[in-house]
Amino acid sequence: MGWDNASEWMFSWNEDLLSEKPAPCRPCKENVILLTVLIQSILIIMSIVHRNLSRLDLNLLTAFDAIYTERSVTKAAECIGVGQSAMSHNLARLREALQDELFVRTPSGMEPTPRARAIADTVRNLLWTVQDKLLTTRSFTPATAERIWRIGLADNIESLLMPPLLDMMLKEAPGMRIQAIFTDGLRVLEALDRDELDMGIGVFRHGGNVHKRRNFAPDSYLCLYDPKQITLEGPITLDQYASLPHVLVSLRGIFHGVADDALSLLGRTRTIVMTTPHFLSVPYVLRGAPVITTLPGTLARSAASAHGLCVSPLPFELAPFRLSMLWHSSYDNDPAHRWLRNTVASLMDQMHT
């Protein structure tokens, strides 16, 4: 790709970002408070004795809360959906685990002991936390959601995807923001694993076991030139393509692309007079010099429309390429992330149609 250098990745790592150093930490009241809370949390975690907790079944706490609420073993069993004998068995296990009678049978029902009253609120809060944090399906409403999406992509995809994506977000999800990151494809997997990116978009040759991929429609290549600089009648011919000077987008600065491989099969060569890692600078180069370039079709047509340039099909066969979206599997069931993936996929499909 380079465009026209498919032997390279679509990304280029911004070394300026890598060289940035965090600002020195300044002691302040907020930092002291945060540090205190962190230390307290660590001490709480360290104080958990897992062997003791393993003896207490969560179902027993559910039984305790039901009996405490209903003041009846029979009604508690009906509330949970178990038999009365099973509920009585749970109560016996609770009494053994907590070393307390917990509930005493009276004419008005099962009366809680002082020990039961003391732990009732704690048990109720614990059950509520489990239900809310572990069992409740996470909801997502774009109109009220707030999130920063970190998307790794090259400038050619950014120029095509970001305008419609940002426009849609401003209308439907105003609390969301986008951080477009110019990322090297060789490091995109590492960035996903470190949770430095929410997704990467480009041409990927591989992915790890913990990564998910969604392919987009294939794209082909086109020639792009300025008719004020170069006069061509009809589609460019093979002789013209080989004789005209070329600008090549190469992220590594290599004067060789996939078009050169195709030409060599025909016994032909071309002259590359300039390489650049930036797709978006190419149209300006074409307008200032009698050179041509080979770019992805979608980008070439967009640049032609925006800069008054012309496109032409290649005078030889060149295999199409396919962009895809890559993300870490830990976000696969995240409702917000799923919404972003579907939105990006829809916009990418629209570009190709």
TrEMBL record:
What family does this chain come from, according to its entry?
Belongs to the LysR transcriptional regulatory family.
Molecular functions per Gene Ontology? DNA binding; DNA-binding transcription factor activity
Answer yes or no on keyword Ubl conjugation. Answer: no
PANTHER family reported for this sequence = HTH-TYPE TRANSCRIPTIONAL REGULATOR LEUO-RELATED, TRANSCRIPTIONAL REGULATORY PROTEIN
Q: Which domain of life is it from?
A: Bacteria
| PROSITE patterns per record | HTH_LYSR
**Record keywords:** DNA-binding, Membrane, Transcription, Transcription regulation, Transmembrane, Transmembrane helix
Keyword Magnesium among UniProt keywords: no
Q: Transmembrane residues, as ranges?
A: 32-49
Q: Which Gene3D superfamilies match?
A: Periplasmic binding protein-like II, Winged helix-like DNA-binding domain superfamily/Winged helix DNA-binding domain
User: Where is the HTH lysR-type domain positioned along the sequence?
Assistant: 56-113
**What name has this protein been given in UniProt?**
Transcriptional regulator, LysR family
